[in-house]
Amino acid sequence: MRMHLTGVAAVFLLLAGIGAAAAEDVVIAPEQDTVIREYVKKQPLASVKVPGVELNVGTALPDTVELHEVPNVKYRYAVIDNRTVLVDPGTRKIVKVND
C-alpha cells in the first residue's frame, strides 16, 4: 500500500509541475501575431549575433540586445541570427520565435 501511495504522489507532483509550466506559456492571438509580423516586415532590422544564447521560449536575452517596440503590442522584438524573437520587456525572456 505504501508503494502505491508513493507512486500516486509522484504522479501528482509531476502533473502539478507540468501545469505550472503550462501556466507560463504566452498565447498570442492570431490577429495580434499578424499585426506583429506585418510591422516587423515593414521595419526590417539588421540581424545581430548573441554568442552563447539559444533562441528558445523562456530564454532571457542580455541587456546588450536592443529590443524594438511594436505599436500597441506589449511585447518587443529583436532579430537574432536572422530570426525574429518576441520578448517580454519586463523579464527580457523570449515568448515566441519566428523564422
Written account of the structure:
The chain has one domain. It is 35% helix and 17% strand. It has 2 helices and 4 strands. It has helices at 2-23, 30-42, and strands at residues 68-69, 76-80, 83-87, 94-98. A 4-stranded antiparallel sheet has the order 1-2-3-4, with no helix packed on it. The longest helix is centred in the first third of the chain and has 22 residues, at 2-23. The chain is globular, with a radius of gyration of 18 Å. The model is unreliable at 4-23 (pLDDT under 50).
Describe this structure in a few short sentences.
The chain has one domain.
Largest sheet: 4 strands, antiparallel
Rg on CA atoms, Å: 18 Å
Question: Span from first to last CA?
Answer: 52 Å
Order of H and E elements: HHEEEE
Contiguous low-pLDDT stretches (5 residues minimum) are: 4-23
Number of domains: 1
User: Looking at the chains present, what oligomeric state does this protein adopt?
Assistant: single chain
**Beta-strand segment tally:** 4
The level of helicity is 25-40%
Spatial strand sequence of the major β-sheet: 1-2-3-4
Fraction in beta strands: 15-25%
**What global shape is seen?**
globular
SSE topology:
Blueprint: H1 2-23, H2 30-42, E1 68-69, E2 76-80, E3 83-87, E4 94-98
Antiparallel strand pairs: 1-2, 2-3, 3-4
